[in-house]
Amino acid sequence: APLSDKLGLSVAELVENAATHTAMVNVPLDDLETPEQCAADFIETADEAETPLLPDLRMPEKVLKAAREIFAQQLAVDPDLRRLARSHLEMNAVIKGQATFKGKSEIDPEKVLK
After folding, report:
1. Percent of the chain whose predicted confidence (pLDDT) is above 90
2. Cα–Cα dist 107/72, whole Å
3. What is the mean pLDDT of the chain?
4. What 8-state DSSP symbol labels residue 108?
């Protein structure tokens, strides 16, 4: 499993929680290692498997930064979350606008906005 999944909920689990609206369906395990321990294990496992890591990924804080970035990218492209966000915005978003000084003199008050 990717390092980002070991740090808590996976993208799929987070999206499922967001979709339920009532209660969290998925919860992170209480017995998880600290993020720093997970990162150190990731580095150690890569060394044991003789998997070359970039020099930046040899430090736990850099590994965690990369894992956050990967998680954010996966979340941003998840079709279910995007659909859920669009639906929420369609039902709840309000757009407010205000005419500029010049626009106030040019707006026809009889014209209906759609």
Report:
1. 27
2. 43
3. 83
4. -
- Spatial CB neighbours of 49, under 8 Å, sequence gap ≥ 6: none
Enter the tokens of residue 100.
């500029």
Asked whether the whole model's pTM tops 0.70, one would answer: no
List, as one string, the DSSP characters of 16-74: HHHHHSSS-SS---TTPPPHHHHHHHHHHHHHHTT----GGGGSHHHHHHHHHHHHHHH
Task: Give the whole-angstrom CA distance, residue 62 versus residue 55.
Answer: 10
Residue with tokens 């600290």, as numbered in its chain: 34
Residue with tokens 């990218």: 73
**Tens-digit pLDDT profile for residues 79-102:** 999 999 999 999 999 988 888 888
Closest by CA to 10, choosing from 22, 2, 18, is 2
Q: Is 20 exposed, middle or buried (0-12, 13-18, 19+ CB in 10 A)?
A: exposed
Q: How many residues does the chain have?
A: 114
